[in-house]
Amino acid sequence: MFFVISPKNFKGYTHNTKGDMKYDIVGSFLAPDEFLAVKSQFEANAIPQAALTAAEDATVRQIVDRQLEAGLSEVTSGEVRRKYWDKDFYFHLLGATCERVESGSIYQEKEAFTDTIRFTDRIAYNALHPVFDDFKQLMDYTNGRAACRQTLPSPTNLYLDILNLSDGHPERIYPSPDTLLDDLASAYRLTILHLYELGCRHVQLDDADCGHLSNPEFENRLVLGGIDLNTLHMQVIKLINDTFADLPADMKRSIYVSSGSTIIPNWEAHDTPDNFMPKLLAGINVDRYYLPFRNDKTETLAILRYIPKGKEVVLGLMDAHSPIPDDTRAITNTVRAAEKYIAPNLISISPRTGFKLSEFALRGLTYDDQWLKLQRLAEIARSL
User: Fold this and answer.
1) How do 74-75 and 147-148 pair as beta strands?
2) Across the strands, what pairs with 256?
3) What order do you get walking across the sheet with 22-23 strand by strand?
4) Which domains does the chain have, with CATH numbers?
5) 9-61 pLDDT, tens digit each
6) CA 70 to CA 66: how far, in whole Å?
């Protein structure tokens, strides 16, 4: 049974509480084969945009209903409408545009292209950004049966992408490098405020690059470009905090920290001098952290000691890529180890990443598998 929640009166996200332990999701879901077939037809110019939009609408409705059936009291759109988890958002900011370029892969028999970002002006808030219509539709579909969470790619991803694309010299590709960080924070913050006006009470930044800043190889590449790492660390933390600054008190602020395709950051390196991860976890002003861990490396949970007291932590412990059942005992042991650092009532468990990434796994999940995974997650939570 679900309580009817009015967005205007909603005072924060209420986790699932069927058992003592709470369970959660990262955000994205695999779409059913029927939708993927329609999407392929559209990409082949065989059907119009209206047909794709209708299929997207139906799929979002289906995924919302399945989340509610799984016992989730907060839902996402499943990120069904996105082609790219990150660039779709960037391309629709003012001052940014999408440009098709050759992929450059020598292993492809046919000429292939990819989409990259180009800047026509300073980045700015776009009042007509499609994220707003997407969220309004999510609210309509949910119809008060649960709270709605909006996921956004973190502005830090775009900032670090710009540094990488420019070899550490953003002035080569961005028209106003001195204002870049402020431009990013302002565009994001105004976007979040408008989402709030539409009824959103929980925004989650998906950060796939901060995890790389604990990787010596990634950092060395930046150093070779002339980047001072200590300055960069402070810039990244400030960018997140400025993005979330002065929001209404009942807007929950969350961050998912991963390490790109490898998912789990190099938590082991947290005790090395000047490692970024302790600075990040201690320095950002968020209400909830979504953090993936390996169940066979409970010693890495020591990183949790840097999280300020009273903050919520969602431990990503379930494999979101493989249909193989997860080891309940291993997950239980990891949760118990985490309770050394985080109060049990502030801990939840979740998959390590969004299910949609399973599209790129060697033997990934099917559409139906992900719901079985959620069912199993709920069972594990009830057993804790």
Assistant:
1) parallel
2) 206, 290
3) 22-23, 347-351, 312-318, 288-292, 252-257, 202-207, 150-153
4) 26-83+119-383 (3.20.20.210)
5) 323 333 444 446 899 999 999 999 999 999 999 999 999 999 999 999 999 99
6) 6
